[in-house]
Design a protein that fits this description.
With 206 residues, the protein is an alpha/beta fold. It contains 6 helices and 6 strands.
């Protein structure tokens, strides 16, 4: 199955002095979401970031750049404000960003739910390809905030994780209600794990 055959979404956490990151994810037919690529950048203009993302999309055979969920601070909240915001520059150069909520508690809850184990496959609803080294390295390192246990420590290297949070808040979420246990194919890997009672995760983040 090709990436171009799937519904693809992007998530962006902007950075200049600090790193920024774009994650590329696809909604799979079984209801899972798979992060299949990432782009980490630092000290780059919005024009150059947009160009790099467009190039990656072309490499994956996508006929257009998918919608990209981002921090609402990148775009003006009202019309008529002076100056060109970063998000508007990205849009002008071909990266169609859109604002999503930056409510961190709700956002991290979406990530937490996406990392839960699908009882059918025994793998997380959200999986990450090994090529996404930045996200795969930093996501397991996230720790709770000392001041708010519902939030994560924002002083950590959380840029790829924030991009994933925006991605999930932007609508590309696992469809956890799509299947029932009766739909597990007989003698498949999931069937054997179910029969043996072994439902441990097999994903990159296990």
């Amino acid at each position: 199955m090709r990436v171009s055959d799937l519904r693809v979404g992007l998530g962006l956490d902007w950075g200049n002095a600090s790193p920024g990151c774009v994650v590329f994810a696809a909604a799979l037919p079984n209801g899972h979401v798979h992060v299949f690529d990432e782009y980490k950048f630092q000290r780059m203009t919005a024009k150059d970031v947009a160009a790099a993302v467009k190039e990656k999309c072309a490499d994956w055979g996508l006929s257009r750049v998918p919608s990209c969920a981002c921090d609402p601070s990148l775009l003006p909240a009202t019309t008529g404000e002076q100056g060109e915001w970063i998000g508007l520059t990205l849009i002008r150069h071909g990266l169609p960003v859109h604002r999503v909520s930056n409510d961190r508690v709700n956002g991290w809850q979406r990530v937490h739910e996406a990392l839960a184990i699908d009882p059918i496959t025994g793998t997380p609803w959200l999986t990450v390809h090994p090529r996404c080294k930045y996200l795969a390295r930093t996501l397991p390192l996230m720790v709770q905030s000392r001041n708010n246990p519902e939030d994560l420590d924002s002083d950590s290297d959380d840029h790829a994780c924030d991009a994933t949070r925006y991605l999930l808040m932007g609508g590309l979420r696992p469809d956890t209600g799509r299947r029932t246990p009766a739909e597990v194919p007989a003698y498949s890997g999931a069937w054997w794990r179910k029969m043996s009672g072994n439902r441990n995760a097999r994903g990159v983040l296990a």
